[in-house]
Write a structure and sequence with these properties.
This protein is of the alpha+beta class. The protein has two domains: 4-234, Rossmann fold; 242-344, RNA polymerase II/Efflux pump adaptor protein, barrel-sandwich hybrid domain (OB fold (Dihydrolipoamide Acetyltransferase, E2P)), CATH 2.40.50.100. 25% of the residues lie in helices and 35% in strands. Helix 3 crosses helix 4. It starts with a strand and ends with a strand. Bound molecules: adenosine-5'-triphosphate.
């Protein structure tokens, strides 16, 4: 089993916390993304899992095995954790051919020549690298180099693969096709994958669950759909997708429904909290109609391909985002209706 359990993990650099009191579990075979703004602690958390950093507090376990303990000082070195690593910088051996880069982990483990050849062929095939097997890394494109790094992971048959912004150096089109390569790799190996990124569309496209981080803490660890539709707090509501957070007043909640005032209008809201205090307005929650009684003025129009994003400002000065198929001009007065937004509680 390669489930990874973190118990009260903290990491401090010169008195400043980079990761704070994280307790969570990544399930065996799960594709987890660590997502958050620059400096939120994603890479530090990944390095703690890899064994490149010692936790200042807390424990990390893989299955039943303790691999790091900030109290007892237990620290299993990276090479004994049976984890594969894929970095933004590829980290290939420049003087070895593609084939040798891929087979090297098996050579170190003293597999027989026949086994090495067979397993290397399987990995080269799986990553579409057969025709590049005899090239040197310097003769490859960025996407091909990243596939060599993946093939090298594949031969090692790791329990978990840790990936640190592996697509950050690639152009947009290649990033999209490489996402399919990672997803395919995940299906093939069944390995637990932990993927650091600050690109939410990348995280949403690939991960089973995303841990959204801010200031060293996990703010919400959930499926992409729940993060978007049911954000737990203001940070997640504003960081994931396009969201405007506005106060919710005069809440009346029964088992079946909740209602309250949003921007002066009485509407139905969705919430699991007993006393929600704010709503997250996504573009889907705003409908433009003649009868809409929330008045707003279009401030900016962005073409999204097949539809437009309208940024409008309500009479009380709140910025609202809506999507339409029809084109509106800047300055147009709109009527908007709010439809059952998600509501959460803020202290
Ligand atoms: P980015 O997306 O910019 O890579 P990140 O979310 O991966 O950011 P980390 O690299 O984990 O963030 O850094 C978290 C915090 O810890 C930052 O404030 C950073 O300056 C600090 N930090 C990270 N490594 C060290 C170190 N070796 N020494 C001192 N401070 C560090």
């Amino acid at each position: 089993m390669a489930d990874i359990t973190l118990s009260s993990i903290g990491k401090t650099f010169a008195g400043t916390p980079a990761v704070q009191d994280i307790s969570t579990r990544f399930e065996d075979g799960e594709f987890v993304a660590l997502l958050g703004p620059s400096g939120c602690g994603k890479t530090t958390l990944l390095r703690l899992l890899a064994g490149f950093e010692m936790p200042s507090s807390g424990q990390i376990r893989i299955g039943a095995r303790d691999i790091a303990d900030g109290v007892t000082g237990t620290m299993v070195p990276p090479e004994d954790r049976n984890m594969g690593f894929v970095f933004q910088s590829y980290a290939l051996w420049p003087h070895m051919s593609v084939r040798r880069n891929v087979s090297y982990p098996l050579e170190i483990r003293r597999f027989s020549k026949a086994e090495i050849a067979a397993q290397t062929d399987v990995a080269l095939n799986a990553t579409g690298l057969v025709e590049y097997a005899d090239r040197m890394p310097s003769e490859l494109s960025g996407g091909q180099r990243q596939r060599v790094a993946l093939a090298r992971c594949l031969v090692s048959d790791p329990d978990a693969v840790l990936l640190d912004e592996p697509l950050a150096n690639l152009d947009v089109a290649l990033r999209a096709s490489m996402q399919a390569v990672f997803t395919d790799f995940h299906k093939r190996t069944g390995a637990t994958m932990v993927y650091v990124t600050h690109d939410q569309s990348e995280a949403m496209a690939m991960a089973d669950r995303i841990a959204v981080m801010d200031r060293g803490r996990i703010q919400q660890f959930d499926t992409p759909q729940n993060l978007y539709e049911r954000p737990k707090n203001r940070f997640v509501a504003e960081f994931v997708g396009l969201g405007t957070v506005v106060p919710l007043r005069g809440v009346e909640k029964t088992d079946a429904a909740a209602h309250g005032h949003v921007l002066g209008k009485r509407i139905a809201v969705q919430s699991t909290h007993n006393s929600p205090s704010h709503v997250c307005l996504r573009p889907e929650n705003l409908t433009i109609s003649e009868t809409g009684d929330l008045r707003a003025k279009v401030a900016r129009v962005t073409y999204l391909g097949g539809k437009y994003l309208l940024e409008s400002v309500s009479e009380c000065g709140t910025r609202l985002l809506a999507e339409t198929r029809a084109k509106f001009d800047v300055g147009t007065q709109l009527g908007l209706t709010i439809t059952t937004p998600w509501a959460f509680h803020e202290d």
